[in-house]
Amino acid sequence: MWKQALRSLPVGVLILDERKALCYANVHALEVLQKDWSELRDRVCSWSDVESLSDSEEESTSVFQIQDVKTEQTVHATVVPFADECRSELQGYSVCWLRDDHEVEALRREHEKLLQLATLNDMLPTILHELRNPLAAIESVVQLLIEESNESISMDLHAILMEVRRMSLTLHGIGSVGKNLRSKKHHAIDYHIEDVIRIMNRTASKTRVSVVSKVALMPLLPLSPSVLDAIAFNLISNAIQACSPGGRVVVQADLIDKTLFQLKVIDTGKGMSPHVLKHCTELFYSTKPRGTGVGLALCSRTVEAAGGTFWVESEEGVGTTITVSLPLTGENRGSAAS
Ligand SMILES: Nc1ncnc2c1ncn2[C@@H]1O[C@H](COP(=O)(O)OP(=O)(O)OP(=O)(O)O)[C@@H](O)[C@H]1O
Ligand SMILES: [Mg+2]
After folding, report:
1. Which among 43, 104, 235, 243 could disulfide-bond with 265, CB atoms 3.0 to 4.6 Å apart, if both were Cys?
2. Domain end residue (candidates: 134, 150, 175)
């Protein structure tokens, strides 16, 4: 009877016997601890007081530990012995109310991310300025050298030029953070995407991945070429990195019904697990040892701020398709700066 009452409580409740061993956990407690009852039954518990919630010594929140059971987060609980007037079979038993820290933890993580982003935004303009100018100088010198050099050396110079342009593109990508995807002027977007593909093909060929262009001829479009370059660069980089040697990345860009711009990056890479798929557009989420986890978060936010959609489809072991769609007649809905 009392078990039924405890089961329906919206808080996590544990009951300990006189040995401090677990003899009952309600459903909510199992959710908070993220364990099955079979992992908890008969485990001896211990706790140390950390903060007093009331004047009563018996009602303070403690750091709670269960012997041989690891929990994802520190568990906080209030432990109260059953009162003397309780039924005799519960004499010496205690009841524990668990505090659900998952929401607090999620808020703390979000707060940390925002602080990191603020630091990034403060430093970016200076770093970009310091890097872009010398790169532009190197690019023009190498271009001049190519014009004046003989054929044997010009191949090497071309390779250097492509690397320098790839570096500029990376910086463009970072610099386009929060910028507006729409533009008042019209630009040759098809030409720009083709250019990104050409540059990325060098990176891809190092790992024997091919990047295939299926970019349709389009009229000049009211989109920002540098922001779109950054999006294409991020999506194609991810796709190349996901592929093993022999893999293939197809980049499609088209204008549908003259009003909907669409960019699709399709790869035959390793794909994403359902967990990665769920989190891949979160800021600072990365599964790569040296990844920043900024790429997809910024691409999706930029597209959505411009009133478009950012759609990720992926199957583990099969590949990934990312589709950016933007109605050209629509308006910005977010706060991206122009
Ligand atoms: N085409 C893809 N195939 C498989 N997984 C992908 C693909 N694109 C993104 N992901 C997954 O999404 C995560 C987040 O991608 P995102 O571009 O935001 O960051 P990153 O690539 O890890 O880091 P960075 O872009 O800074 O190098 C990746 O770590 C990866 O797990
Ligand atoms: Mg990336």
Report:
1. 235
2. 175
